Amino acid sequence: MKQQNSVLPAAIADALALLPPAPHSVLLAAALNRVLGRSIQPKQLLPLQDKSVCIRVTDARLSFFLGADHRGFVARRFSQTPDLTIGACSRDFLRLALREEDPDTLFFGRRLYMEGDTELGLLIKNILDSVETSQLFIMRFLPDTLRAKIRAELLS
C-alpha cells in the first residue's frame, strides 16, 4: 500500500524492512512505558493482556507487535493474525503522538486504518485519549534545534 504522506526515502524503508520485528517491538514497548507510564495505570491495560496488536508503519515497512501485562506494554511475538492491526505512515503516527492530528480525522481520511477487533482499537484510542497532553513528554528529550527541525520537516 503506497501512502501519499510517505516521509522515508525508499532506500531507508527497504533497509528497515529487513529487520526482524522483535527488537523494535521491544524498543517501542519500552518507549511507551517510559512516555505513558505516569499517565496510564497497568490495570487500564488489562484488556490487552491476551491480545496481540500490530502497529504497521507503512512507509517504513515496519510492524510492531505489542500487548500488555501487569507491568505495562510488552512486545509480542510476530503473529500472522494479530487481534488488531493499526496502520499509517510515519508522519501520521508522529502527528498522532504529538497530538497534532486526531485519529478520527486520519481514519475517515483513509490515512489510518484498522483491521481486526475494532472494539479493541476503540479501547486503545480511549486509553490514549485519557492521557493529559501535558503528560506527553515525547519531545522534551530532544534538543530545541532537533525539535524545531522535526516539526518543520515532518509536520508541515
Describe the structure.
The protein has one domain (10-154): SCP2 sterol-binding domain (Nonspecific Lipid-transfer Protein, Chain A, 2-Layer Sandwich). It is 39% helix and 17% strand. The chain has six helices and five strands; from the N terminus they run H-H-E-E-E-E-H-H-E-H-H. It has a five-stranded mixed beta sheet. Strand 2 (62-69) and strand 3 (72-75) form a beta hairpin. The protein is globular, with a radius of gyration of 15 Å. The two termini are 23 Å apart. The model has no long low-confidence stretch (mean pLDDT 82).
Keywords:
Nonspecific Lipid-transfer Protein, Chain A, 5 strands, 5-stranded mixed beta sheet, 156 residues, alpha+beta
**Helix run count:** 6
Unreliable residue runs: none
Note the main sheet. 5 strands, mixed
State Rg.
15 Å
In quaternary terms, these chains amount to single chain
**CATH homology superfamily:** SCP2 sterol-binding domain
Summarize the amount of helix as a percent range. Answer: 25-40%
Total DSSP E strands: 5
CATH architecture: 2-Layer Sandwich
General form: globular
CATH fold call:
Nonspecific Lipid-transfer Protein, Chain A
Distance between the termini: 23 Å
How is this structure best summarized?
The chain has 156 residues and is an alpha+beta fold. The chain has helices at residues 10-17, 21-36, 90-97, 103-108, 118-129, 144-154; strands at 53-57, 62-69, 72-75, 84-88, 113-116.
